[in-house]
Amino acid sequence: MTNYKKIIFLFLILFFSLIYFGYKFTSSLGYKLGGTLGKSNSIEESIERGVFIKKLDYKLIPSIIEFKKERFFFIEKSFRYGEKSIRETILSNKKDDFTYQIVMTPKEGEIFKGDFLIGENSDSMSFNNLVDTIKLDIIKQKINLNRTHKVGELLLFDKR
Predict the structure, then answer these.
(1) How far is 94 from 113, CA to CA, in rounded Å?
(2) What is the reported pTM?
């Protein structure tokens, strides 16, 4: 009877090992984030990844435009996720990648109170050289005309 229990025990270990390694193999073939550009979700994550540069202060012009929630902005080095895990950080060194990127937290939800958006004709949120001030246009879309027009600016600068 003890040999019978040993055989069942070994069979169960082998069975669960096959399931585990099969899952690990097939899950790596599915949706693939590995190698794609990444952005940190928070300053703490950016520091943990070793890509944090500095926190930014901001100014909204005109001051009647307001954020829907409190927002924080910071600059981090651009990075790519690792091939096997999104927890792995690989600093971007491809010539098409930018060296730095601006991250806004929290990311989710509407940014401004009202129908305001960050415009496409703004300074980029990714860049190769650090600058003193980054200027982002704030636009409002005219619903009936399917056009946008600039109504303000979001200035990001070094927090002192």
Answers:
(1) 38
(2) 0.68
